[in-house]
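Exercise (ungraded).
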Amino acid sequence: MRTRTSLLGLAFVSPALALLFAFFLMPVVLTTVFAFTNMSTSTGITGGSHVITGNLLRDLGNAGVDDDIVAALSEGSFSVTPETLAAAAEAGVEPRFLGEIESSLMGQSFEDARSFESALKALPSRPTRIRDLKLATEPFERSILNTRYSSRAAMETAIASMVPDAPVDTVSAIAEASYTGWRWIDGGNFQTLLDRPETIRIVLNTVFYVAATLAFNVFVGLFLAITTFYLPKTGAGFFSVLWLLPRITPVVLYAVMWKWFTWDNGFLYVIAEQLGLPAFNYMKGSVPTAWATIILVNGFVGASFGMILFSGALRAIPVQQLWASEVDGASRWQQIRRIILPQLRWPILFVTSYQTLSLLSSYEQIWLTTNGGPGSTTTVWALEAFNTALNNYTGNLEYGMGAAMALILVAVGLILSILYLRMFRFDELVNKPRIEF
Amino acid sequence: MQVTLKNFTKTFDDTTVIDSMNLAVNDGEMLALLGPSGCGKSTTLFAICGIHRINGGQILFGDRDVSDVPSQKRNVGVVFQNYALYPHLTVFENIAFPLSVRGDSKPDIEREVRAIAALTHIEELLARRPAQLSGGQQQRVALARALVRKPDVLLLDEPLANLDAKLRLEMRSEIRRIQLETGITAILVTHDQVEAMSMCDRIAIMNKGEILQIATPTDMYRAPVNKFVAGFLGNPPIVMLEGRTSGDGRFLVKEGTSLPLPARLAGMPGDTPLSLGVRPEHFGAAGANRVEGTISFVEPQGRETLFDVTLDDGVVLRSIQPARDDVVFGQKVVWPLDAEKLLAFDVSGRAV
Ligand SMILES: Nc1ncnc2c1ncn2[C@@H]1O[C@H](COP(=O)(O)OP(=O)(O)O)[C@@H](O)[C@H]1O
Ligand SMILES: [Mg+2]
């Protein structure tokens, strides 16, 4: 009986568990996996093959691989083997001539076209025209450059055949380096981030962006909630809806509105011009105005969120408490500071923590407005991660690096959540309204 | 401090709740504002402490017109019906609140709070929060907070309504004790006549925004000005009989029974329509007149027993007597009626 009920329970929660797994856990797991690879557009996300390219050879040379080997790999060679003979037959080389090649040159290799050609010229049935002779050499050419090998072993064999005297470990290192798919690079992405000079700049930008926007959210939200609370009822409803607009406007439309507001010949521009103030593209024209734009764009969305929560909490305070504080002699300000604000503690902490987390991972509005500019002065971590992984100008999207950056955000978010949960004890927040008067 | 309302008028939107009320509360007196729910008692109280702005008339504290003084400056202590304690503050901080917003020094606050906590017997609760207190304890804290800055007037809005029966009894005498010890002028709002009668020096009885009578509890009980007051006071309530005078010192209930009129009304001309009020304690105890009927209901109340007696023509009189079990349901009884104590009201409900 007990097992049946627990099975039944499991059956009931399994959809929730599946959802949790698919939409909450999987993204984090995938991000974590990607973060430790060098996946990018060029590596693809499935497996790759082994190719030696000109670039790779240059890199190998720079990395200290013997110049002779590099040179050997870059050149083609000519060898007479059953395969090349078959290829030549296919290519339509004259059979008698082929027979002579087979009988006299079988198993031989030639380093360059010239020596192979002179060996061929020694044969009786050689073509008379020099052009036919050159054509006949082509099927025998074996070059490793830009040839795809599906496995590493095949690549190693090919290298060894090109440079028979190369040491085994060099061969295997070259084969390894020739892999075109993605691979595990342990903490390589994180090391790269640590080494990059822009990283600290982006971190500081992010901290500034989150702190400033958060402060705006909370203070403006509180200010609006308290002023509308003291406003006569009729006006309050109108203002609530007004302040909700940023929240309910589609984000793209909202961003466009801000563009119109701050851009060249936009609303502010025209007004500033009329007043003789500096008029320029405020959104992208200077660092302080770019920051101001971003903070306001995000700030108003968050402020209306805060205002709704704060207003609700305010209205939950019994009016008798406010009356009591008035007859106790408290001025309006004392009433706000000593009766109202302490009782808004939970919503304030909730808005603070919730907004920290959502601001940390938000980039849409920045992307749609300043796009991190001017330069990268307003680029925040989430935007950089997005650009790295999904929106690179050069076309090479670095999934692995982007995932590493996202993973850092997830980690920071997790740590902050735990801290917030600890500090503010959300369970108490949920139980709080039990106290009734 | 004497509190005077002169032609006090209060309207909400277009509804006039109180129209031109006059009331004077003497210095050091505890006055009850008694009336049914919704008659405007709280409204009056909130006007006195300044929470509601008045729409007409004057409110005087002593000789000072406080009509336009904000509630912060009136120096009144208010105990709200739901106590309105600040949930985020400890009991100590709750009581200290009026002093600390005034900017008193820490030692002063400490001393005053301790003193008032001693008066209200809550010294051991000072560190707790309101949520950790019982209803009676919250009540004491609210009282302490209202009294701590020695207000000129103490206003209590249904202070006992949220307490259970036993606590209500206890707090009734406690509030009265504290009021007497401090000598503060107090106004108690209540819909419970027992509270009003047991706690207060005088009662102002209200109905529909109007004060009907102001008197001491005994006077009001003995000589109510009208039918409403007579009906509102007394438990078990008075029985009202409709009928006419006979012209020869008797009263004919419309069902037929004839009852004697008090001597002072014996000279009334015949056929005058009247209401005659019979309180239960005036039937079945003493008196010269005998009334015969059948016991139709018995309710033992411990110390007393309540009877309903149905007369031959169907009129029901009520009687309360020291507990007795010699009379049972259905029994015929002949009980005395104290005619001199009967109350009579004319057609407009005024006492005659
Ligand atoms: N803030 C208000 N707005 C409108 N009407 C009110 C308000 N407060 C009280 N009233 C009305 O005034 C009348 C008296 O209310 P109140 O003084 O609270 O009665 P009570 O005697 O029960 O304390 C009631 O009819 C009530 O509906
Ligand atoms: Mg009331």
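Further reading is listed at the end of the chapter. For now, observe: Residues 77 and 111 of chain A are 5 Å apart (CA to CA). Residues 192-429 of chain A form a domain with the MetI-like fold fold (CATH 1.10.3720.10).
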